[in-house]
């Protein structure tokens, strides 16, 4: 029975991520205007409904398939707990900096301060780290598969959003993109070092 439930939850998770992923990939390729919607339209509701379905599916799969990889639990906990906690905390803090509207894919202000002075997508960086941590904690084959897909999702989203951001904010966004990396990089480390040096 548990195997059937796990398979169903896994299939629901795959489907609920692949459907919006097609729209995001099409937006990134410039052949659709699915994401970001900029307003509360059908794409907005599809995106967030399927996102919640995926989250529940991932949790169910992780519980039902718990520890199926058989890696040493101490190692998976030592790696998983800090990655999940730190990544999730960064994602939530960055989401607060950006604001609920903009985080949801709606039009708003260009944010370049707070966490956004280190990365153009600090929420995504946080969620990627948290997802890796969750996969380690679950130590499960199917949950890890969903987590790998989820990381691919977070890595693809900025490529769909950037053309829209350029349309919204013009030169201001281009100047911002020149000085702040898409995810993290040398410029992130340099900004942190300069800020630390200034405080010292």
Describe the structure.
This protein has 8 helices and no strands. It has 200 residues and is mostly helical. It has a single domain, classed as Four Helix Bundle (Hemerythrin (Met), subunit A). The model has no long low-confidence stretch (mean pLDDT 92).
Segments where pLDDT lies below 50 for 5+ residues? none
Helix content: over 70%
Note the total helix count.
Answer: 8
Whole-angstrom Rg = 18 Å
List keywords for this structure.
single chain, 200 residues, mainly alpha, Four Helix Bundle (Hemerythrin (Met), subunit A), flat
Short description:
This protein is mainly α and 200 residues long. It has helices at residues 2-28, 42-64, 73-98, 100-103, 122-138, 141-169, 171-179, 186-199.
Produce the secondary structure layout.
Blueprint: H1 2-28, H2 42-64, H3 73-98, H4 100-103, H5 122-138, H6 141-169, H7 171-179, H8 186-199
Helix pairs in contact: 1-2, 1-6, 2-6, 3-5, 5-6, 6-7
């Amino acid at each position: 029975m548990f195997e059937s439930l796990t398979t169903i939850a896994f299939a629901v998770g795959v489907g609920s991520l692949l459907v919006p992923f097609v729209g995001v990939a099409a937006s990134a390729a410039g052949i659709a205007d699915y994401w970001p919607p900029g307003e509360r339209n059908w794409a907005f509701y599809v995106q967030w409904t399927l996102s919640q379905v995926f989250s529940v599916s991932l949790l169910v799969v992780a519980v039902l398939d718990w520890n199926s990889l058989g890696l040493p639990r101490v190692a998976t906990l030592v790696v998983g707990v800090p990655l999940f906690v730190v990544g999730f905390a960064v994602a939530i803090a960055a989401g607060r900096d950006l604001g609920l509207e903009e985080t949801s894919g709606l039009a708003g202000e260009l944010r370049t301060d707070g966490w956004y002075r280190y990365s153009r997508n600090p929420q995504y960086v946080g969620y990627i780290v948290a997802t890796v941590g969750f996969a380690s904690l679950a130590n499960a084959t199917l949950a890890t598969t969903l987590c790998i897909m989820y990381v691919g999702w977070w890595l693809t989203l900025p490529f769909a959003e950037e053309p829209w951001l350029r349309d919204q904010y013009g030169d201001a966004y281009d100047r911002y993109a020149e000085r702040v990396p898409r995810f993290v990089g040398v410029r992130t480390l340099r900004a942190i070092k300069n800020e630390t040096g200034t405080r010292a």
